[in-house]
Amino acid sequence: AQSVSQHNHHVILSEAASLELGCNYSYGGTVNLFWYVQYPGQHLQLLLKYFSGDPLVKGIKGFEAEFIKSKFSFNLRKPSVQWSDTAEYFCAVKGGQAGTALIFGKGTTLSVSS
Amino acid sequence: DAGVTQSPTHLIKTRGQHVTLRCSPISGHKSVSWYQQVLGQGPQFIFQYYEKEERGRGNFPDRFSARQFPNYSSELNVNALLLGDSALYLCASSPRTGGGNTEAFFGQGTRLTVV
User: Which of A23, A82, A94, B4 is the most exposed place for a label (fewest CB within 10 A)?
Assistant: First the structure.
């Protein structure tokens, strides 16, 4: 079955530090890749998505992610985090063995101190 | 524009009871999916409905069922509740079946506590 692994359970950073969150998925054919964010008390929101084309995708709030097909990875990056980026981040995959269902990783909690 | 709306927002039920959760998709969206998010985990896929037909089912027992109405709203039903059913239940809507290059938009969820 399709699966998604997020390497970091909890990341703690100071403001202005750079961020990279790892995400790997199991091979299952052509997939769509997503990063969702859940701010405290709010619903899941889409940060960015990859369907095809340029493997470097840019999302909202200065986030970007790079799809590396050979490594089955879709890591999330931000050059300089802000206190307001404190949230839980989920990597998700759709397609391949998963069909139309979104398969989520366990999530990474990001805490940014000011 | 209204997003995905779910009701109720919070719910407390006793073991063995039945529960119905409701979801209204974004206007114009025909696909609704249901996910269960247990504390500390990512959302897990339960069902997907498109045009009132079930299009996908996750690895959940038969106690879980769902349906979609002509106005594309949806209900998730859970029978014979167990303590382990305590979770945040998320509804997501998509414009089409969800396959191909489409994204899902999530509601705030219903927090179910089984005691």
Answer: A82
pLDDT reported for residue A56: 96
In chain A (114 residues long), the average pLDDT of successive 10-residue segments reads 90 97 86 93 93 93 95 96 97 80 94 94
Q: What is the 3-state secondary structure (H, E, C) of chain A?
A: CCCEEECCCEEEEECCCCEEECEEECCCCCEEEEEEEECCCCCCEEEEEECCCCCEEECHHHCEEEEEHHHCEEEEEECCCCHHHCEEEEEEEEEHHHCCCEEECCCEEEEEEC
Test A100 with B97 for CB contact under 8 angstroms.
yes
Number of Cβ pairs < 8 A linking chain A and chain B:
58
User: What's the average model confidence in pLDDT over B96-107?
Assistant: 76
